[in-house]
Design a protein that fits this description.
homotetramer, 143 residues, Thiol Ester Dehydrase, Chain A, 6-stranded antiparallel β-sheet, 2 helices, 17% helix, globular
Chain lengths: 143, 143, 143, 143
Amino acid sequence: MTNSPWDGGLLPEPALPLSSTFEGFLQLSWQTLEDQNAGVTFQIRDDLRQPLGLMHGGIYSAVAETVASVATMAAVWKNGMTASGLSNTASFLRPITTGTVRVTARRRYCDEREWLWSHEFHDDQNRLCAVVDVWMAVRPRPA
Amino acid sequence: MTNSPWDGGLLPEPALPLSSTFEGFLQLSWQTLEDQNAGVTFQIRDDLRQPLGLMHGGIYSAVAETVASVATMAAVWKNGMTASGLSNTASFLRPITTGTVRVTARRRYCDEREWLWSHEFHDDQNRLCAVVDVWMAVRPRPA
Amino acid sequence: MTNSPWDGGLLPEPALPLSSTFEGFLQLSWQTLEDQNAGVTFQIRDDLRQPLGLMHGGIYSAVAETVASVATMAAVWKNGMTASGLSNTASFLRPITTGTVRVTARRRYCDEREWLWSHEFHDDQNRLCAVVDVWMAVRPRPA
Amino acid sequence: MTNSPWDGGLLPEPALPLSSTFEGFLQLSWQTLEDQNAGVTFQIRDDLRQPLGLMHGGIYSAVAETVASVATMAAVWKNGMTASGLSNTASFLRPITTGTVRVTARRRYCDEREWLWSHEFHDDQNRLCAVVDVWMAVRPRPA
């Protein structure tokens, strides 16, 4: 797939230039974007680190929020629906300091109003470093 | 208080220039830093937004992670301990699109190994927009 | 207050004899029932224990679920609304093996659709043993 | 397998007669008990219901707490370790009023100190009604 899910017409037109947004800051490389699976990779950089040199814990939460939001929106927008985050729960298992981070998301639940995505974060030695669950609300698009 | 808790000697020496880190990116203005209370404010900017113009959900999680980490570290580092995040749970109540965001954190629990911080995010009309709970692990500093 | 919030006309008529339900099994003693605060006490008994003799972890979750549900329903039923649980998050801090357990609940958030209650469980030496957050959905009563 | 995991020597000797404990009250029928998968079924009865006739929300949390605890303990006790619950997070998707409930648990994470179990609850029409995540701490047995 292309590296930007915003290119394919699946998502609403951005209201801002993508490069100026937090998505632009994150610089995720999309690997998978399907109704029940999604995945990205990204490189650790200084501006993703906290002052002691580890990847900042909030980056796990933020990347998962983006993955769940984009994957849900890409599945429902074409049907006249929109998606927004309800909750985001991250558990931190092992710090990451350098290299490429691989994020895989699996849709664990889906009904007419709520979707649950579970994300796993692996470092470049394939160790599980965090799990993040995100609940999305799916609603009809406002008129 | 000063705007940087890293100035007062309460925190470990940064391994990276602060301005190059994710803390530098967030540009938080510290209002309160006490053992049981902490608070910051920050301005919404395009690079804190998702493409539709709302503040990105991950920013709530990330700011709370910073507030809880800094506040815990500032309380325990001087006693030979260090702090790291265990989990981060955000519930999103109302979107924020512009203005100043005010974050207040209250320590809800503390024992010899774990601290729980609850954060509230208010917009500049003083509406509660998100709540985020962060569990921190407190351990002896590695030798 | 009386020991049963089901006596005062604030709650919908039970569909089952109370004593036959799980509420009957729990035998909670209601101490406080207000829009923003609620509290119960109960005694540890063998049938609230797991096989090693500690209070079963699920009892924390279950008691909090009851407290949040009853307190929300008591506040909204008279206005034509009903309440149901969305999620229940318990963190276990210290085991309880015997004595009286004291549960205090504080409403942390409330809008037209969702309420958040935070519960603290103390043992009879006044040590905090668990915290439980419960989100309730509030909706118009079905016709 | 037999209906009681307490029969096979995998678990520590109960300190109380099982039938007198909360496990005895729940009357779970064990279907699967493996290192990475576990499952039980149980029947809805009045004393598992709340006063309006639905299964009490706390029963989801409590059953998952038992399943995760027993499955972890059965895997680690023989190696000189013990297990205790850290947190329990339930999301309620659809009420159950009657019939047989089927609970399947999958181990999502495991390291030398923490295990994460995810549980799904299905009703007897095979609809997903709740998901519950339980974190267990695994530690050396006290001497």
